[in-house]
From TrEMBL:
Binds 3 heme c groups covalently per subunit. One of its GO terms (cellular component) is plasma membrane. This is Alcohol dehydrogenase cytochrome c subunit. InterPro entries: Cyt_c-like_dom, Cyt_c-like_dom_sf, Cytochrome_c-type_DH, Membr-bd_ADH_cyt_c. Its cofactor is heme c. Keywords: Cell membrane, Heme, Iron, Membrane, Metal-binding, Repeat, Signal. It comes from the Bacteria. Its main location: membrane. It is found in: Cell membrane. SUPFAM superfamilies: Cytochrome c. Residues 32-136, 179-292, 318-408 form the Cytochrome c domain. Residues 1-24 form the signal peptide. Heme c 1 binds at C46, C49, H50.
């Protein structure tokens, strides 16, 4: 009898414990879903575009994005019922992200990377939705509207654009490749929308390819006056000479293999890639290193005769090539006379793929405006590159860029004064 009561008590206790843990698990799953959504929102850099500069409230919109049609303002995507997406059902949300059609039927401009987001899996989409509805603070404030001139203000026409250019369907894993490769491909092609900057665009602003089946995919593109370089295995201006672990370190802390992220990549590292897990960054690097070289351009031959002659001449001060004096006076103290840079502070210029790029937009813009390296939770501290708009003439900027593109074994085409002039006029600097 006593043992019977004991077992009965034990049974009750066990049932109570089981039901308590079932409740706890219910909560944990929701909290976990929101947490996973938060991670995915970082991977998709939703905050980077949906937050106004100068301390705008997170996700409340109001960042103006330059596009060939004019400035497009990002929307408030906090769960505010009036000004945000508080009234969005899951289906509304998925449709906006994948098809570029907001609740109520408004067609979105492809400045919102829905052509890439169309590949997001259903699981990830549910997690993102849970985060935006339950994990983000509503902001009761209207984002400034987009005002484009005719005919670009005719949003209905975007439906035709979508028919012609926007890919459809979720990411389809490739059975020929390992799990990591597929994870990297998925992250880059969907949430990461890396191709939005790194893939060249066609005449209608469409990306010329959304995966490795296109020879244009990730071969470099200009967006908002920054050139995002070739990420295929091209040994000159691509990632051919950059190791997998260096790519991981570059994405995690903005520094890797002597390269330092600059221009629009600084925000990508600060807002997005620094938060990705080591496994995910590794997967991205594995995928990147698998891409065959496309559109080769520029070359680096550090041990050539010409390279060693220059090195000797620079040490003995005999060198009289145009641009060399400017380099020694204005650049060498950080980037070093031999172009080797300083680890975790200043990028190397010798053999730096971005320096060898066929498109010089980023190089010219960086020299004119200056810049600063990303500040991340685990990476090296922020360092500044000064602006040279006041210190150097347009011709001198062309000369020093030509110098760094043709010295230490670097071999890329010279930069013309006219190119510098044109870009300065475009960016009003
Ligand atoms: C590269 C910039 C960029 C990124 C990254 C981005 N968006 Fe957007 N998004 C935009 C722009 C621009 C618009 C407004 C487009 C328009 O008005 O046609 C927009 C619109 C939206 C809308 C429609 C809201 C409405 O009712 O007007 C939703 C929802 C949205 N984005 C969600 C997201 C989420 C979630 C993410 C991250 C997974 C994200 N966006 C990432 C640029 C971006
Ligand atoms: C907003 C535009 C933009 C987006 C989105 C973007 N990048 Fe970049 N990226 C750039 C620019 C501009 C550069 C050149 C400056 C530099 O080297 O940091 C660059 C450089 C790089 C480099 C160094 C290449 C080199 O030769 O120096 C790597 C690697 C890279 N990006 C990977 C990625 C990955 C992976 C993603 C997606 C998760 C991504 N980028 C998304 C603009 C972008
Ligand atoms: C005070 C130190 C300093 C001086 C002087 C300086 N730079 Fe830089 N440079 C940097 C830093 C820091 C970066 C990274 C900038 C960023 O991330 O926005 C950089 C980046 C670059 C890059 C992009 C390469 C990459 O991988 O990030 C080029 C090209 C460059 N500098 C050329 C020059 C030239 C040419 C001069 C002289 C006219 C010069 N720099 C003078 C500190 C300096």
């Amino acid at each position: 009898m006593r043992t019977g009561a004991f077992f009965f008590a034990l049974l009750i206790a066990a049932l109570a414990a089981a039901s308590a843990s079932a409740f706890a698990q219910g909560d944990a799953t929701d909290a976990e879903l929101v947490k996973r959504g938060e991670y995915l929102a970082k991977a998709g850099d939703c905050a980077g575009c949906h937050t106004a500069p100068q301390a705008g409230a997170p996700f409340a919109g109001g960042l103006g994005m330059g596009s060939p049609f004019g400035t497009i303002m990002t929307s408030n995507i906090t769960p505010d019922k009036q000004f945000g997406i508080g009234d969005y059902s899951y289906d509304d949300f998925a449709k906006a992200l994948r098809e570029g059609v907001a609740r109520g039927g408004k067609h979105l401009y492809p400045a919102m990377p829905y052509p890439s987001f169309s590949k997001i899996t259903d699981d990830d989409m549910h997690a993102l939705y849970a985060y935006f509805i339950h994990g983000v603070r509503p902001v009761h404030k209207e984002a400034p509207p987009t005002k484009l001139p005719f005919p670009f203000n005719q949003r209905w026409a975007l439906a035709l654009w979508d028919l012609a250019f926007s890919p459809e369907g979720r990411y389809k894993p490739s059975p020929e490749h390992a799990v990591e490769w597929n994870r990297g491909a998925y992250l880059m092609q969907s949430l990461g929308h890396c191709g939005a900057c790194h893939t060249p665009r066609g005449p209608a602003f469409e990306e010329r390819g959304y995966d490795q089946s296109s020879k244009h995919y990730l071969t470099g593109g200009v967006n908002d006056h920054w050139f995002a370089p070739n990420l295929t295995a091209d040994p000159g201006s691509g990632l051919g000479r950059v190791q997998q672990r260096e790519i991981v370190s570059f994405l995690r802390g903005g520094h890797g293999g002597g390269l330092v992220s600059f221009g629009s990549m600084v925000q990508v590292v600060e807002d997005s890639t620094q938060y990705m897990s080591d496994d995910d960054l590794n997967a991205i690097a594995i995928y990147l290193k698998s891409l065959p070289a496309q559109k080769p351009s520029g070359a680096y031959t550090p041990h050539s005769r010409a390279a060693s002659l220059t090195a000797t001449a620079m040490h003995t001060g005999e060198i009289a090539r145009p641009g060399s004096g400017i380099f020694m006076s204005y650049c060498a103290k950080c980037h070093q006379a031999d172009g080797s840079g300083v680890a975790n502070k200043y990028p190397k210029l010798a053999g730096n793929p971005a320096v060898l790029a066929p498109d010089t937009t980023s190089l010219i813009r960086l020299l004119v405006e200056g810049g600063s390296s990303p500040e991340t939770k685990n990476g090296p501290e922020r360092k500044k590159m000064p602006a040279f708009a006041e210190k150097l003439t347009t011709a001198e900027i062309a000369q020093v860029l030509t110098f760094i593109r043709t010295t230490w074994g670097n071999d890329a085409r010279p930069v013309a004064t006219r190119e510098v002039q044109t870009l300065r006029a475009d960016i009003h600097k």
